[in-house]
Design goal:
Distance between the termini: 55 Å
Helix content: 25-40%
Largest sheet: 9 strands, antiparallel
Number of helices: 19
Shape: globular
Number of strands: 21
Number of domains: 4
CATH topology of the largest domain: Rossmann fold
CATH superfamily of the largest domain: Vaccinia Virus protein VP39
Radius of gyration: 30 Å
Strand content: 15-25%
């Protein structure tokens, strides 16, 4: 065998390579799941350097450079270093690389990384260990799968060895190659041991792309505070246990998203709490209160897994009736104040808790010295209302995250940041499980909290940041570095009952403001006005459809920005739309039969360009699309000057009332079987 595949890479200006190649290799080492969806991740146990002796022989000396894998502290790193050293000594006699792999040699050092690959799915394949050896001088990284023999010693699984190589061709031209010494059929499962075709067709292109497009992230790696191996096992168990919830979901929200998102959050908390019990020598499982619990599924799972606790939300949900009496949920309004403290609770949870989000650390700090918190920010709220941006150099999301972290810091917590694996764009969480001040200073910290809350919304914020020593730019574990434990002197006292009289909780009855409750006549008028505006804009864009030798021209109109569209609409229409979330853009997206909104521009949709649902949609969505076929009138057939761009038999909408079908009712089960 020789090269499995080679990808050419251009590096204009020579700014990215070879540094970008090693960054790409690091992604494949630490986060293989971003390329191989059959893996849930990799736990890096240890890594270290191995000096090369004369003639390219490996010196027996070994130096550790730390270890990963989700916690463990100094003891874990020492154990990982010891194990890697032992492994290296065991394997040295097996490390002669078969051709055509590039052998190790030359000046410098090798770097060895020991990792465990964690398969996804159920039943899951067993985890597999692998030793990756990086040779910077030769531009290679060699992956050596390991298998344990009957004596408990590891051997190199030679049939699954492969090597990734970087070579400089000339000037700005480089190449990235994957090389394997054995043929395709020697490679086994295609999960922890990739098949050669996958290495060639999938991994190689990703490595080439990552090598020149590596961008520093403003966020932590996912699941950086817990054991990835434990998380993977618990998640698969819980996913299997609660998958029936998808079938009985009575809410209008997407069950696939919300069920598996709450399963993932519950998994994270269960693993985090298990490790906390081990650290502190606790036997009793932690208690909790979920503030703003919403559908209550997270509470349901945590209760079922043995944690005593309850969820509180201002509005009862239909699904609460499904859970049964063992799940403790309360319908109540939380007003931050002395009447809503939880002195006997171990953890407070704020999972997409909206206006309560910045209050979670405050309530935890004032409930008891031992109370901890977990918060997953979503919508942007300050103590008194919507969060107002103050820094244009950051994204709004990053700025808000820094604010929530600052609240925890001011409340006296060592704040830790982590990124969850959930189907959401808002995945960053904060954890406060220890204090940075002695219990005797509780009263002084409480005054500091009050002053900080009162300072929000004024120009005193920046001055406050400087005085307490909070650094917004420090995001890598330094969010809570010691900045002086002495609180500020302040004579302001807490109200004694309500901490902020102007606080506005969410309304008990949810107001629907996504344009779906607008009068139908009003919506139809706006749709027709915008469509005519696009169709009459000059120059007109015509699309030709050649079928059977005939050419039919269909006017698709021009595209306009949302701002340009708004400028042509009546002021009263815009005023009415402004009261709805998303306004004009939401209304146009809701009418996706007629419009396509991309990158802030509005287009007339051409249904001839839409891909077949059989190619783009999963089975459930294809079935629902088929059930909805011809249940609504075709807007283009009625209003477009050229009619519909599709013939009647191909259009999913009815060309006239005679084609209309009755929309089927989709019934849902009401109880778990």
């Amino acid at each position: 065998m020789g090269p499995v595949g080679t990808a050419a890479v251009r590096d204009p200006g020579g700014a990215a390579l070879p540094r970008g190649f090693w960054a790409a290799v690091r992604v494949w080492l630490e986060k293989p799941q971003v390329a191989n969806r059959r893996l849930s991740g990799a736990a890096v146990q240890a890594e270290g350097t191995v000096p090369l002796g004369e003639g390219g022989e490996i010196s027996p000396s070994f130096a550790t450079a730390g270890a990963g894998g989700g916690g463990g502290g100094q003891e874990g790193r020492a154990a990982g270093a010891a194990e890697l050293g032992r492994l290296w000594r065991e394997l040295r006699g097996q490390l002669a690389l078969p051709p055509p792999l590039t052998g190790w040699g030359g000046p410098g050092e090798l770097r060895a990384v020991l990792r465990t690959l964690l398969p996804r799915g159920r039943p899951a394949a067993p985890p597999a260990r692998e030793l990756a050896v990086q040779d910077v001088h030769n531009g290679t990284v060699t992956f050596l799968p390991l298998e344990e023999n009957s004596e408990g010693k590891y051997q190199v699984k030679k049939c699954n060895i492969y090597q990734i190589q970087l070579k400089h061709i000339k000037d700005e031209e480089w190449s990235v190659s994957v090389v394997a010494p054995f043929p395709e059929d020697w490679f086994s499962d295609g999960i922890v041991y990739p098949k050669l075709a996958w290495l060639r067709n999938e991994l190689l292109s990703k490595l080439a792309k990552w090598s020149v497009q590596q961008k520093p992230s403003g966020f932590k790696s996912t699941l950086s505070l817990i054991s990835l191996a434990k998380y993977s096992k618990v998640y698969q168990d819980l996913k299997e246990k609660y998958k029936e919830m998808v079938k009985v979901w009575p809410e209008v929200t997407d069950p696939e998203k919300f069920v598996y998102e709450d399963v993932a959050i519950a998994t994270y908390l269960l693993v985090l709490w298990e490790e906390e019990r081990k650290e502190k020598g606790l036997t009793k499982k932690q208690s909790f209160v979920d503030l703003g619990c919403g559908n209550g599924l997270l509470v349901h799972i945590l209760n079922n897994e043995g944690h005593s606790g309850r969820g509180i939300d201002v509005r009862r949900r239909k699904i609460w009736d499904i859970y049964g009496p063992e799940t403790h949920l309360e319908e109540a309004t939380i007003i931050p104040g002395d009447s809503h403290l939880f002195p006997d609770t171990d953890w407070l949870i704020g999972n997409h808790s909206d206006e309560l989000t910045p209050w979670i650390p405050v309530i935890a700090a004032r409930s008891s010295y031992s109370c901890c918190y977990f918060v997953l920010p979503c919508c942007f709220f300050d103590f008194h209302g919507k969060y107002r941006r103050r820094q244009s150099k950051k994204t709004q999301y990053r700025e808000y995250l820094d604010f929530v972290a600052q609240v925890g810091f001011v409340c006296g917590f060592h704040v830790e940041e982590d990124c969850l694996r959930i189907p959401s764009t808002k995945r960053v969480s904060f954890i406060g499980k220890s204090r940075r001040y002695p219990a005797a200073q509780h009263a002084l910290i409480d005054k500091q909290i009050t002053q900080f809350i009162n300072s929000r919304g004024t120009c005193a914020v920046a001055a406050w940041d400087r005085r307490v020593g909070f650094n917004h730019e420090d995001r890598c574990g330094g969010l809570c570095k010691e900045a002086g434990s002495e609180p500020l002197e302040d004579d302001t006292e807490t109200d004694g009952t309500i901490w902020m009289p102007g606080f506005q909780p969410r309304e008990k009855v949810e107001q629907v403001r996504n344009c779906v409750s607008l009068p139908r006549d009003f919506v139809d008028e706006v749709v027709l006005n915008v469509a005519n505006l696009l169709l009459n804009a000059a120059p007109q864009k015509s699309c030709s459809d050649k079928q059977g030798g005939n050419t039919n021209t269909w006017n698709q109109g021009e595209s306009l920005s949302l701002r340009e569209v708004a400028e042509h609409l009546d002021k009263e229409i815009l005023k009415k739309l402004k009261s709805e979330y998303g306004g004009l853009q939401t209304l146009l997206k809701n009418n996706h039969q007629v419009f396509e909104v991309l990158n802030g521009r509005v287009h007339i949709r051409d249904w001839r360009k839409e891909e077949s649902p059989s190619k783009t949609k999963p089975e459930v969505k294809r079935r629902l699309s088929a059930e909805a076929f011809k249940t609504r009138l075709c807007w283009f057939f009625i209003h477009h000057p050229d009619g519909c761009s599709l013939p009647s038999e191909a259009c999913p909408y009815a060309h006239g009332t005679e084609e209309l079908r009755q929309s089927p009712m989709i019934k849902k089960k009401k109880h778990i079987q």
